[in-house]
Write a structure and sequence with these properties.
The chain has about 130 residues and is mainly alpha-helical. The protein has six helices and no strands. The longest helix is centred in the C-terminal third of the chain and has 50 residues. The two termini are about 25 Å apart.
Length: about 130
């Protein structure tokens, strides 16, 4: 791997993709919402069988994504999201979040490729100048 590529990696993904963590969190939150709504709809998750605390524990045990807001917002979702219209809305929100993440990741990758290419070209130019001087 070229030294320039390693230099970009050492700088960290945040350097070339500052929106990445925020977009990943947004997608995880939408994934949680979609999964929660689907599991309730399909009867896999019976809300009436839990206290709020036991439901949150159950969701954690079932591998729901930990987000900065925690899992409590799932318990505050309006009942309208459990209708067929609401489920479609939750699915659309999740799809938009995924598309935004993919678009942003692609733009960041292209930016990183351009940065590496520029660094490689600069090193190659220095090498050629040194060879010419010798």
């Amino acid at each position: 791997r070229p030294a320039a590529a390693m230099a970009v990696e050492e700088q960290g993904i945040e350097t070339v993709w500052p929106d990445g963590p925020k977009l990943k969190t947004a997608l995880a939150e939408r994934d949680n919402r979609m999964r929660f709504v689907q599991e309730v709809k399909e009867g896999k998750l019976l809300l009436h069988a839990h206290t709020q605390a036991s439901l949150l524990d159950h969701l954690k045990a079932q591998g729901y994504a930990a987000t900065p807001a925690g899992l409590s917002p799932l318990l505050d979702m309006p009942a309208s999201l459990f209708t067929s219209d609401g489920i479609a809305q939750v699915e659309a929100e999740r799809e938009r979040a995924n598309e935004e993440l993919c678009r942003s990741r692609g733009a960041a990758a292209e930016s990183a490729r351009r940065a590496v290419r520029a660094q490689v070209e600069a090193v190659e130019g220095r090498r050629q100048r040194l060879e010419a001087a010798v």
